Amino acid sequence: MKFQMITRGLIAALMVVAMVGCSNEEPAPKPDNPTAEEKEPTVALEVSEITTSTISFTIEATDAQSITYLIAEGTAAPDAAKVLAEGIKAEGDEITCSELKPDTDYSIAVVAVNIEKQAYASTGAKTEAEEVPMPEVTVSLREGSVAELSFSFFISSTEADVLKWVCIEDGSRDVTAAQVIANGTTAEANVESEVVVENLEPNTSYAVYAAATCDIEGFEPVISEKLVIKTAEPEPVGYHLSDTTTATATKLSSSLDNYFITFTDEANGYALRCDFYTAIGDYLPSGEYTLGEVAEGALNKSYTTFMYTPSDSQMTPFERGSVTVEATPNEETREVHYTFNGVLYFSNGDFVTIDYNGLVEGIMLPEPTPEIPDVPEGATVFTPDIEIKQPVRLHTPSLVPGEYYIKFYDSNWNELVLDLMLDPAICNDGNDALPAGRYTMEDGTIDSYSNVALYNPYFSENFTEAELVVSVEGLEYELTFIGTAGSGSTAKTFYMYYKGEIQDMVLSE
């Protein structure tokens, strides 16, 4: 007979073979060819499977007329006499002992008998421990319970001896199960109950955690999944800037950029002043600006105020709140389109809501630094000479709004004339100085009347292709011009670079 078994680990087969003791009489001489009944029996024992209440094993024996086994609680194996006296006759080679205690040591012994001769084997095994149910905990929102200052949630647990919960502002800190058990509010364990949380801030995200523990030795508390709940936004019961609001900015710079923006409600007479601080940049960038001390991304609490009329000397400060800014720059017009959305709260609970969409006077993109091209090969260089005559903008009755008519003179009194045509809306009908930028005949900002006149050798033609790049710093201009005058075989390419003032650039009022 042959038996096999697998334990929780791999239990090595115990192959124990024992011989019966000899009698005190002289043994009879053995025949030359002993029969099977006279052979020494052998027996081996191997555990094959273990559960919480059963142990299965296999028996392998030879030359045996009977096999008896006995399983006993403990690690001391029954001897052969006890097995033969109290054991069970094996009906096969695979044995299962049931109704055993979990997590308990057992000894198994077996005796194989052949007439008066015996073989003995034993081994040990331990039943599996029963799985202990572990605590679980859950939290869920009660639908329809979220208000401006409160909400409700359900909390439940299983197999727990202690159940607690906490509610904090979401993202304010990390939370562990041990912290909840140590500092949380107690709830009834192993039932579903409802918890009401009050005295919250409106329009704020909160995180709810629950943790459970039990009396099992060495058990670590378990924590629920985070439940995030955002309180409702307040009803508009305060002051709201209307659609007729305008915005004007004053910019100051030090280690940070400071944009002091006044929102004036023309219809209601309100005025909201917001003092934004941000990193040094080209314009007030997108972001959420929170009322507080002077810092990047903050609204200065000292200078962010509200006036019930623009001329009101009483400027009411705010206690808390924030304003979200979305900036959309336009590289072509140099304008920055803004939306401002936010709520600022007074100390008495009143509030001001802002929902502004439009431009802010005083905020424009800086003009790009013009690219100065190299002198084209074969081009005639026209070099203005301010000793002969400074470049001048001419004002004549024939000029149309937005037109800039400028003459340049070199040391030979040669002339280069540029007739620039700008959109009146971006240059105050031409009453402002020439804006920085790139002007071309292709986009129509350089008019075809632009021309060059040389006296020696004589050459006088209008430009057919031209590009002018302008940068401005104070009253000083930096100009780079490339243009082709005339056509066909007589056409000439001209290059001019000038840096300095242009006489009469700004019209007198």
Textual characterization of the structure:
The protein is mainly beta. 4% of the residues lie in helices and 47% in strands. The protein is built from 3 helices and 35 strands. The protein starts with 41 loop residues before the first strand and ends in a 9-residue tail after the last strand. Mean pLDDT is 88; it is low at 1-33.
Low-confidence stretches: 1-33
Number of strands: 35
Overall mean confidence score, pLDDT: 88
| Fraction in beta strands | over 45%
What's the story with the biggest beta sheet?
11 strands, mixed
Shape: elongated
Total helical segments:
3
What is the share of helical residues? under 10%
Our measurement of the CA-to-CA distance between the termini, rounded to an integer number of angstroms, reads: 122 Å
Q: Structural class of the helices, strands and pairings? A: mainly beta
- Rg from Cα: 49 Å
